């Protein structure tokens, strides 16, 4: 009888509430482009439109007029597959806002759990056949009941801000309100994050931005969104800004936002889990490169929402020219060697091999050559500290030579005084006999 292992519970997705305290700060634009950038990094994203105007759904190409999935999820406090719509980007799904969402607040106000309806609904997502890494909530620009539901349900709250002192004044009150609403819930809140949008490069604007970072340093993201007229609520585009390519300044800014956001959920390179600035920048750069490649792939995919026929033609032409150029070039020998960029570990391995191979060959030659063994053994016997090692080596290499060397050593030891006297007489020039005692030949060494 085989024993079945219990199934591991599916991880819950990260829930991100994007809330602008007033219209015109680019909250919907931020929610849509953050979702796109996360999807370009290979993450599965559910974009939930809580704004009755439905701008997030329009930006993703949704044109339905029926009752939206967001409205049904709030009423039923649960999610079903029918409430979620696929988009033309495989990694992104949409819970659209319906026409009745604008009047739903009165109905929710009559419920005892009016502030936790969305929290309850999102808790049922792991039961669906779809898996999401992130849920992005696009909130209306007011602290109404819809926004309160989002702030209660979120793991992290992203607040797009402009360089406006009036918005900063209401920030402490907003933080206290969210803390009070979540007081009795087990849902963790990992933090508030301020995304600064620059209106203009004036001295007053720069001073206010510096004050934001000084007062809310831990909450302020490194990324700043440059001013663009398309960030205004009335000018929210019907397609994402990243659809126009990630090379524009504002497009690069949103890629940096998503890259920085991904590092928030990762352990840093230091022992306490934080990041060194340089290491974090390198990590973000790798994420940006991956997102850029993902977006470029969408732009040449005819089934993608981001498909750009002109860009697809340019890519095809560039690929054809590259193939022609490669075919016209003569084969280059050792081209792979010129293009090789070895890592530090590879270089260290090669250096050890350069030292180890000659040493091995020398030792192998010594092991096969009896004369070299005798030479090494005699050299080792000379120094007093190597006597035992040299004697053992020499005795194993040639026993006869070893015996003769030991007898010579004993001869010198027994006749040391006589030999010294003979040497002095020889230096004085006086002829004299030099008699020494020979040890027996059969003496054991």
Stretches with pLDDT under 50, minimum 5 residues: 1-8
What is the helix/strand order? EHEHHEEHHEHEHEHEHHHHHHHHH
Tally of DSSP β-strands? 8
Using only C-alpha atoms, the radius of gyration works out to: 40 Å
Give a topology summary.
Blueprint: E1 14-18, H1 27-40, E2 45-49, H2 55-59, H3 69-76, E3 85-86, E4 92-95, H4 104-109, H5 117-122, E5 134-138, H6 145-153, E6 156-162, H7 165-181, E7 191-197, H8 203-215, E8 220-225, H9 249-264, H10 277-299, H11 309-328, H12 335-338, H13 344-368, H14 370-381, H15 387-397, H16 399-414, H17 416-428
Parallel strand pairs: 1-5, 1-6, 2-4, 2-5, 6-7, 7-8
Antiparallel strand pairs: 3-4
Helix pairs in contact: 1-9, 1-10, 9-10, 14-15, 15-16
Describe the structure in brief.
With 445 residues, the chain is of the alpha/beta class. It contains 17 helices and eight strands. The protein is elongated, with a radius of gyration of 40 Å.
Structural account:
- There is one protein chain.
- The chain is an alpha/beta fold.
- The chain has a domain of 308 residues: Rossmann fold (3-Layer(aba) Sandwich), CATH 3.40.50.
- It is 49% helix and 9% strand.
- It is built from 17 helices and eight strands.
- Strands 3-4-2-5-1-6-7-8 form an eight-stranded mixed sheet, with helices on both faces.
- Helix 14 packs antiparallel against helix 15.
- The protein is elongated, with a radius of gyration of 40 Å.
Task: Give a quick set of tags describing it.
single chain, about 450 residues, alpha/beta, Rossmann fold, eight-stranded mixed β-sheet, 17 helices, disordered N terminus
């Amino acid at each position: 009888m085989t024993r079945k292992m219990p199934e591991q519970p599916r991880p819950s997705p990260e829930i991100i509430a994007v809330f602008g305290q007033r219209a015109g700060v680019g909250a919907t634009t931020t929610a849509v482009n953050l979702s796109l950038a996360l999807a370009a990094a290979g993450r599965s994203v559910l974009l939930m439109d809580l704004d009755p105007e439905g701008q997030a759904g329009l930006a993703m190409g949704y044109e339905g007029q029926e009752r939206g999935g967001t409205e049904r999820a709030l009423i039923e406090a649960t999610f079903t597959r029918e409430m979620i719509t696929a988009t033309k980007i495989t990694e992104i799904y949409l819970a659209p806002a319906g026409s009745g969402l604008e009047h739903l607040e009165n109905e929710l106000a009559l419920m005892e759990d009016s502030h936790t309806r969305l929290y309850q609904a999102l808790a049922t997502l792991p039961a669906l056949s779809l898996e999401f890494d992130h849920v992005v909530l696009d909130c209306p620009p007011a602290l109404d009941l819809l926004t309160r539901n989002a702030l209660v349900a979120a793991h992290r709250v992203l607040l797009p801000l402009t360089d406006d002192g009036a918005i900063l004044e209401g920030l402490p009150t907003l933080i206290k309100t969210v803390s009070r609403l979540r007081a009795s819930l087990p849902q963790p809140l990992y933090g508030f994050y301020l995304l600064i949008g620059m209106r203009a490069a004036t001295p007053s604007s720069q001073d206010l931005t510096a004050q934001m970072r000084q007062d809310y340093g831990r909450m302020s993201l490194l990324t700043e969104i440059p001013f663009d007229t398309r960030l205004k609520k009335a000018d929210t585009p019907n397609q994402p800004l990243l659809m126009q390519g990630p090379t524009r300044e504002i497009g690069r800014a949103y890629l940096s936002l998503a890259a920085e956001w991904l590092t928030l959920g990762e352990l840093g390179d230091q022992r306490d889990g934080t990041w060194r600035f340089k290491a974090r920048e390198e990590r973000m750069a790798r994420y940006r490169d991956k997102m850029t490649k993902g977006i470029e792939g969408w732009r040449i995919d005819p089934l993608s929402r981001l498909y750009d026929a002109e860009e697809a033609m340019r890519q095809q032409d560039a690929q054809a020219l590259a193939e022609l150029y490669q075919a016209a070039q003569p084969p280059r020998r050792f081209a792979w060697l010129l293009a090789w960029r070895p890592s530090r570990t590879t270089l260290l391995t090669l250096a050890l091999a350069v030292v180890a191979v000659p040493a091995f060959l020398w030792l192998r030659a010594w092991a096969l050559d009896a004369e070299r063994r005798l030479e090494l053994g005699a050299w080792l016997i000379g120094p007093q500290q190597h006597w035992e090692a040299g004697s053992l080596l020499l005795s194993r290499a040639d026993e006869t030579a070893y015996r003769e060397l030991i007898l010579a050593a004993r001869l010198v030891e027994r006749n040391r005084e006589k030999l010294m006297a003979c040497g002095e007489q020889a230096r004085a020039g006086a002829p004299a006999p030099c008699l020494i005692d020979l040890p027996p030949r059969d003496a054991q060494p």
